[in-house]
Every structure is written in C-alpha cells, then in structure tokens.
Amino acid sequence: MNFSESFIQALDSLKSNKLRSFLTMLGIVMGVFSIITIMALGSATESYMNAQFEKIGANTISITYKNMNVDKKDWLTLKDMEYVKEAAPEIKNISTNIQKRGTIRIDDKTKDALVLGVSSQFKNFGIIEMKYGRFINDFDVTKRSKFVVVDELFVKKFFKEGQDVTGETITLKTSSGTSVSLKIIGVMSSGENMFEGIMESDLIPAVIYMPITTVQQLYPNSERLSSIDVSLVEKDKLREVGRRIVQYLEMKHGSEDVYMAQNSADIQKAFSDVLGVVSSILLVIAVITLIVGGIGIVNILLVSVTERIREIGIRKALGAQKKDIVLQFLTESMLMTGIAGLVGILLGVVAGGIISALIKIPPVVDLKVIIMAFLGSVALGIIFGVYPAKRAADLDPIESLRYE
After folding, report:
1. N or C: where does the chain have the smaller number of CB atoms within 10 Å of the terminal CB?
2. pLDDT tens profile 178-213
3. By residue range, what is the domain housing residue 37?
4. Closest C-alpha to 32, from 386, 361, 384, 349
C-alpha cells in the first residue's frame, strides 16, 4: 500500500465519523489558533513599540533620582539643565517637564486635567505632530506666557471635531484654587492611538501642555523636576555621556549616589524582555492545549483500532504487512492534525488581524511561524499516532478475524 492509498482511506475514515473527527481536531485547532494569535499579536506589539521608540529617538538619556526621597538640596531644577549642558556639550537636545492636576472649564463644560509644564525642546522627545498652530517655544518659557497646547481629543470634547481652535481661551483652575485664562496656541494631532477609546472616557483627564515656568508660577513649591532628558547624535556614547552627567550633577550638589542615567536602548530592551516573558507564558499555555488535543487523538485512534479489528485481520489475511497498517493509522492521525492545523492557522491570522485593528496597531504575520505551526501540528499527528498504529499493526490476524 502506498501513501496515496493510505491518504484516501484515512479521508474516508474521517468522513464516516464527521462529528467525532471534528471534536478530536478541535483541541489541535484551539492550540494552533492560540499560538498563531499570540505570536501575531506579540510581533505586532513589538514592531509597534520599536516604531514608537524610533520616532522618539533611540539616542536619548533620562537623568533621574535613584531614590525619589531626596533632600531639597539634591532636587533637580531648571538650573541643573545648564549644568547638564556644561557636562555634555555634545548633546543635541535637552528637555524636562513637570506634571500637575487642575480643572478645565470652557463655557458650561468642565473636566479634570493633567497639566504638563514643558520646556521648549519637549517636542523633540515625543511623538508630537502639530495639526494647527505651534508648540511651546523658548520665548514662551522665558516670558512665562499664559499659552496652552491641546490635542484633537481635547478639541473633540470641548469644541467641534476637526475645528481649528487656536486663539480660543480656556480657564484652568489649579489644585490650590487659583483660576487663570489661557490662550490656545496649537492643536496636536492624536494620530492612530491604540488607547483612543479609553482616552475619550470622562474618567480620563484631559491633557494640556504649558510653558514649564508658567506652571511653576501657578503652582507653588513646584521647582523640583522628576527628570532631565537629553538626546545625542551618536548613539554609542549614551552610557559614557550619561555617567559623565551624573558625576557632574553630584559634584555640583555636593552629593554622592543620588542620580542615575537611563538610556532609551536599555528601556527598549526592558520592554522587549517583559513582552517576551509574557508571550512565552502564553505560548506554554497554548502548547499545553496542543498536548491535550494530542492525547485526545491517541484516545480516538485507540477506539478506532478497537472498532476496526476485524477489518485489520482481513487486510492482514490478504497480505497487508505491519508497515501498511502503521502507515494507514499514521496517515489518518497526520490528516486530522494537518487539517486542524490549517484551520487553526486561518482562525489565528484572522483573529490577530481583528485584534490588531481594534487596538490600532499594524498586524504582523510571520510566514515562518505559520509554516512551523503547520509542520508542528503534522509532527504532533505522527508522535501521538505511533502508539495506536503500532497496536493495530501488532494485532494477530487469526484473533482479529474471530473478533466480534
């Protein structure tokens, strides 16, 4: 008996027991589906994150505290930005920001707000594209201008979606109760934001950007900066420049072991490592599903052997050899897992595309993963089909013919 004959017989066997075959393959389908979906989403998320890091810049350093509970003399302030420039003349951009809370009021509409006081080069460290107007500049920071930059989600909430609101006035009430009128000088594009639906919720505060000096003037005791960010032209100097800046700041403050430098390459690697661990855990769960499905195949094939004992005896009496019986049952097992694998791959690709569209990240389908998933499902059929096939091949033909 050749493989084509075994394939036809295996196909006929599956057709004769459609429901049983479907239920047997379901475990393999779910396992392969889970693997493809997890790998597709993992690859898509990693690609999205890498793209965002590239937009921000893969050559940035963030100077912050080793321990957030530091003495006041060790606070990072705007003056320290000048120290950083002195320590590292080769830096390309330097920026900082502070975060405060407040309440926005426009006509009869109010909403909690996250107030970001930013320096003029803040735009160079974020994924910021202006749709209307401009961003905060050096003059705004120096003059403590009462200007504000908002985003499209803000415009959608308070005005009309797509409207150019530059020149409009809003009122900010600070946490201390002070109210101030602010002029909108720019609207940022929200772009394709995977969290847009969440950000539109009334529970999420609006985000506004103001000159950092203006925010410090409105909010008492806000001299302390959480970090100072710098970017370099040469990526290979990140660690050396970061170390030099930390040493210089500690010398200026007369302190030791207070600050640390985190570069974007290390942060990106940390994100990738965390994502890799999560994906690995989910993959282990998917593989367990596959193994459970494989055990189901063993069970069904053993039942099939029992049901076809007389058939096996007749075939052996007509000259079929052990290898023919083994080939028949292995082919049936591989056919089940192969079909289940293809269905699982198709469902996984579709599900990955749908979920990627919902969270607004480009879908990524790795052809190698698809091929490996299919070959793996076929290999699973061989592994779990060996024992039932051998058991069928070892049946005594005389005893088989007597079996009722």
Report:
1. C
2. 889 999 999 998 765 544 544 555 667 888 999 999
3. 3-53+269-402
4. 349
